[in-house]
Amino acid sequence: MLIKKTELIRSSEITPESVYLNRRQFMKGLVGTAALAVSGSALALPEPEFEKGVPVYPGPDWLQQQLRAGVSNAGMSTDEKIAPYRHAIRHNNFYEFGTGKGDPAKNAQNFVTDPWSVEVTGECDKPGTLALEDLIRPHQLEERIVRLRCVEAWSMVLPFVGVPLPELLKRFQPNSRAKYVEFTTLNDPKQMPGLRSVFSSLDWPYVEALRMDEAMHPLAFMAVGMYGNALPPQNGAPLRLVLPWKYGFKWVKSIVRIRFTEQMPRTTWNEAASHEYGFFANVNPAVSHPRWSQATERRLPSSLFRPNIIDTKPFNGYADEVAHLYSDMNLKKWF
Ligand code: MTE
Predict the structure, then answer these.
(1) Which element (helix H / strand E) includes 230?
(2) To test ligand 1's pocket by mutation, which of 156, 195, 234, 251 has the most ligand atoms within 8 angstroms of CB?
(3) CATH number belonging to domain 11-326
(4) Which of 80, 90, 136, 154 is most buried, by CB atoms within 10 Å?
């Protein structure tokens, strides 16, 4: 895959979303040309459109500095229309903060994400517990605009900022027994009302995992930001996975532990309903969820009058990049 990195300059204090999107349209034109002479050209991340009542999340100083030095990875980005910021932070799945789409935005606002540390453990030569800053600082941040396809058949195009997952994981030197890598969300009932709910059907903490070759794929990404700022708490601050070819439930939020394992780990949604949610969870229009079709999706934002239904693509449109990882597998069985 072609990776062109261009300097990323966070825009002035207020770049209206429309300006940002127009600039993107301009970039889109460039991406289509053979020369792709974008290196060095300034590409602004948006300061989210400041609207009354729409909060922004600048994050700690060290992260602000790193965001300013970020680059745009056009080769890993789609040129589809980005979801308006206000939708991205108000339509969420983060069951630790409630099961309604608006619950995380309502209940996660006091979620403490700084300081934060991540434990890296299991089958690796350099395990350790790192402050988030130490985990992220050695890397240059990059922006990738990707499609998020939820297993519930809605989708959004989102601009994430973060670090390629392979680069991050390699630092811990996974050993030859490391066949899988597991990611665990914070488990703090005091801060997370969903964990206190008697109606919860999930076994906490939230855990999802990848095969090592999946985790080491160039599309696998660890995000620390969105729309040019830190991740909002409802979107998984301070760090979450971005796995564009997999259903959103694999995109673990607010990660506190990374563990390399020899055996396939038990994962939250697979444990909850293995006939509905497979371990691999690759986006696949040919394999229906037992209760609904996966052939199409509702691209958000949408409305009653403009439902915006589009066809779902195998591997969420990233088949050219990732299909080879599964060439010897029956994807109807290993969904
Ligand atoms: N991570 C945790 N810890 N808890 C969750 O409930 N929901 C997943 C995923 N990551 C979830 C999670 C699902 S089902 C989706 S679709 C995406 O987060 C949604 O991400 P977004 O809210 O940022 O759009």
Answers:
(1) strand 229-230
(2) 251
(3) 3.90.420.10
(4) 136
